[in-house]
Automatic annotation (TrEMBL):
Name under which the protein is recorded: Alpha/beta fold hydrolase
Species name: Streptomyces adustus
Domain of life: Bacteria
GO MF annotations in UniProt: hydrolase activity; oxidoreductase activity
Domain called AB hydrolase-1: residue spans: 61-153
Keywords per UniProt: FAD, Flavoprotein, Hydrolase, Oxidoreductase
InterPro entries: AB_hydrolase_1, AB_hydrolase_fold, Cholesterol_Oxidase
Length: 378
């Protein structure tokens, strides 16, 4: 909902967060008149970012793009490559981009109130979908979602909160999250060690300086790294200290590589307990068990997958160093447990986790699969 006040009805007093400042400007090469930035606030009071790309054609199917945690809508608009928005515009779609509360464009990124992925699934995604529907009427609405954007979308879908989508493309992970073994172990260890001392893992070495409490994390990330850039090491070699790898290095253009600190923000450590619970369950599970505000969400999204009412394309790079073969696992599990669902799996050879969207060759190697899926259902 947009601009809804936080004190209506019988709901308990809602959290106050510093959300008055507008999101950081998007980086793109579209004309200024083509970009409509909508002041958008979730019904629990949190300021989000919602952007519509104006096409001058009011009959186009809409495609909502959901970024991963600590990334932002910028990941679909990179000026330095042929990006997903370019391709969607050329193919006759109307792109919409949501900066959900885990976006690095949002000004409270490092200082705002804590949240869990329940909040994203309950508030951000369904309310953005509802707003977009209000604007596009009965035109088809697709969603293309990456990483945690996709994981939280799976929770919204299995809750029945976003019914009637024309199709969903999920990249990296969907209903069956499976992290690399050492990643889940390090998540546990890092969470315990760092509890109370820091609450975010930064990626931008220039911001934290040479000597800081974060120095050991960067030193750890630099071990056996072949690239001298500390920000790249933190993401490529360590994935915010988890030990995973977020992309195939050679797939990024030099320009994208050099602006990683702009494309990805610090990772909050306080999200780890929810992520760990999800990882242990091998399913997207709700965090809030007793808070009645979250009862619309199923305790376990995989168990509730029968509510999914839209075709799903599961995409993954063959070299995904964060979620491994979660997407293939999801396809196999759904084929067995929910054979009535329309779910397909496509693997992108030679690609990792982020490069299916950020890679310099993504328009050639990846986006065709997305367009084919959308084209068959528009
Ligand atoms: Zn590098």
């Amino acid at each position: 909902m947009i601009f809804r006040t936080a004190t209506t009805g019988t709901r308990p007093a809602l959290r106050r967060v510093r959300t008055t400042v507008a999101p950081r400007p998007l980086r793109h090469r579209l004309g200024p008149a083509a970009v409509e930035e909508i002041p958008f606030r979730a019904s629990d009071g949190v300021r989000l970012g919602l952007t519509r790309v104006e096409t001058g054609d009011s009959g186009r199917p809409a495609v909502l793009l959901l970024h991963g945690h600590t990334a932002s809508a910028d990941m679909f608009l990179q000026p330095e490559t042929r990006n997903l928005v370019d391709v969607l515009l050329d193919e006759g779609y109307e792109p919409w981009l949501l900066d959900w509360r885990g976006s690095c464009r949002l000004p409270y990124n490092e200082t705002g109130q804590r949240y869990t992925y329940d909040d994203v699934a309950l508030y951000d995604i369904p309310e953005a979908v509802s707003y977009i529907r209000g604007r596009i009427g009965d035109r088809p609405l697709f969603v293309v979602a990456h990483c945690i954007g996709s994981l939280t979308l799976s929770l919204s879908m299995s809750a029945g909160l976003v019914p009637g989508l024309a199709g969903v493309v999920s990249q990296g992970v969907f209903l069956t999250p499976k992290l690399a073994g050492r990643t889940s172990l390090r998540m546990t260890v890092a969470g315990e060690l760092l509890k109370g001392r820091i609450d975010h893992i930064p990626v931008d070495f220039r911001k934290v300086g040479l000597r800081s409490k974060y120095t050991p994390l960067f030193a750890l990330a630099s071990r056996r790294a072949s690239c001298p850039d500390p920000t790249c090491q933190m993401l490529h070699n360590s994935a915010w200290g988890t030990g995973a790898s977020l992309f195939v290095h050679g797939n990024l253009s030099r320009t994208t590589h050099d602006r990683l600190a702009e494309l990805f923000g610090p990772a909050p450590l306080w999200i780890l307990p929810h992520l760990r619970r999800i990882e242990l369950a091998r399913s997207v599970v709700r965090w809030h068990d007793t808070d009645h505000r979250y009862r619309a969400l199923p305790p376990n999204a995989l168990d509730a997958a029968g509510r999914i009412d839209t075709p799903v394309l599961l995409l993954a790079g063959s070299e995904n160093g964060l979620w491994l073969d979660s997407q293939k696992l999801c396809h196999d599990v759904l084929a067995r447990r929910q054979p009535q669902l329309d779910v397909t799996y496509t693997e992108i050879p030679g690609y990792g986790h982020l490069d299916p969207f950020l890679g310099r060759g993504a328009a050639l190697d990846v986006f065709g699969h997305i367009l084919e899926f959308l084209g068959e259902r528009r």
